[in-house]
Amino acid sequence: MTGGIPEISDRAPGRGAGLSADLEALVDPAGRPDPYPVLRRLREASAHTASDGLVVVAGHADCSKVLRDPAMSSERDLFRLSPTARGPRTRNFIHLDPPDHTRLRRLVTKAFSPRVVAALEPRIRTLTEDLFRAAAERGRFEIVSDLAYPLPLQVICELLGVPVADHHLFQAWSAKLSEALEPPLPGLVAPRATGEAARARAEFIRYFSEVIAERRTSPRDDLVSQLIQVNENGDQLTDSELLATCILLINAGHETTVNLIANGVLALLRDPDALRLLRAEPELAGNTVEEVLRYDAPVQLTTRVARQDTAVGGTVARAGDMLLVLIGAANRDPQVFEDPDRFDIRRPRASQHLSFSAGAHFCLGAALARLEVRIAFELFATRVIDPRLTGEEIPYKPNLSLRGPDRLDVDFRDIKLPD
Fold it and tell me: Phi, psi (5° rounding) for residue 360?
């Protein structure tokens, strides 16, 4: 043992074989409602070589190190067992390394500065109140379709200048494209899903190609026009980079927030004491967001590829190996979080989670997501009277990487609306 981490040789049994029993259990859709017992076992074995070319990293310290290590690449194509991608490709800077990643992020980051995001709060609050008002008029509240999806989707679409009539297209395309975020583990992504993701990407490219061409001749007060006009010492985004950025902002900046809202509402409903506390002290909404990010991360895992042979915990990642970074496991590491399986909206160090990644790839839209979800949690706790879950089982989306309920029906006695 070294520092509490098992010393597992890179030639340990299973190298060259299929997935381990715990990884097979993690991939199995039957485990979506509660993956945390499996994640705990994988954390206790972290870091270890699970199969030929695959290293599993699940402890907080190891995950944090890998996410910050410049020897680890975000370019999946470098993974020596990576499947050939299908469909048109775009340069998504999430899957790029410096200096390309640094350049693209620098050109985009001004659009998500703290000042710009803070100015959005009145509009986001109005949109959220409108969604609660609509639920009150219907007399029912399905959290995923009535709140979690429409709120971040409408915000990002308004920022990009996408008309309301096209929002439903983006929701459908984004859901299909999310399959492309799954790691290339055996049995995880069906060929049908891969094909649908490629078609969704092609639809996004077609749509935004037309938008970008139009904004070049007729700029508007929207993010697409701003991205076209960005110029730092003669450096501008190419059309391909503009396309990739628009798709990234819709997909990554939307699907993850959907799950964060739904996971948080579910956690609050399952813990009436926490919900009562948030109702009494709505100023805890910000810390509640951090605790949900830690307790039930909307992004459960990510990947890196070793550029060179690198020691990780008790094993060695060989050049070309993929590292499966289990964020959902790291966020419940008892070495960092006391009583980690307990949902605690007063937790003092909840923000030490890794749900927004770390290092160079820290989430560009973290401030916007935090703002949207803080408002959603605050209004849910203070406006919805006597909310309660309906149904015995919560259906979950099939995705492994992006975790969240597929449906969340809530009954209520009343919804208080502003005068």
Answer: -60, -25
Those residues whose C-beta lies under 8 Å from the C-beta of residue 62, and which sit 6 or more positions away, are 5, 46, 47, 312, 313, 330
Instruction: Tell me the two tokens of residue 287.
Output: 């810390």
Specify the residue for token string 């070319």: 53
Q: At which residue do the structure tokens 């550029």 appear?
A: 307
User: In angstroms, rounded to a whole number, what is the distance separating the alpha carbons of residues 296 and 394?
Assistant: 14
**Which region holds residue 320: left if phi is over 0, alpha if psi is between -120 and 50, else beta?**
left
| Contacts of 175 by beta carbon, 8 Å cutoff, 6+ apart | 255
Could you read off the pLDDT of 361-400 as tens digits, one per residue? 888 889 999 999 999 999 999 999 999 999 778 999 988 8
Q: At what angle do helices 366-383 and 285-295 cross, to 10 degrees?
A: 110
Tell whether the torsion through CA atoms of 363, 368, 371 and 372 is positive or negative.
negative
- The answer to whether the CB of 179 falls within 8 A of the CB of 189 is yes
**Would the pTM count as exceeding 0.70?**
yes
pLDDT tens for 315-367 read 999 999 999 999 999 999 999 999 999 999 999 999 999 999 998 888 888 99
Q: Which among 280, 284, 208 is positioned nearest to 241, based on CA atoms?
A: 208
Q: Residue 216 is inside which H or E element, if any?
A: helix 191-217
CATH topology of domain 85-292+342-415: Cytochrome p450 (1.10.630)
Distance CA 169, CA 179 (A): 17
Cα 202-206-210 angle, rounded to 5 deg: 165
Residue with tokens 């409903």: 269
Q: Could you give the CA distance from residue 75 to residue 306 in angstroms, rounded to a whole number?
A: 10
Pick the range with the lowest mean pLDDT from 43-57, 183-197, 307-321, 334-348. 183-197
Residue 329 token pair: 């496991």
Kind of pairing between the strands at 310-312 and 409-411: unpaired
Which residue has 């290092």 as its token pair? 359
Q: What are the domain boundaries of the chain?
A: 85-292+342-415
- Distance, in Å, from the CA atom of 272 to the CA atom of 383, rounded to the nearest integer, reads 15
Q: How many helices (H) and strands (E) does the chain have?
A: 16, 12
Q: Which residues contact 272 (CB under 8 A, 6 or more apart)?
A: none
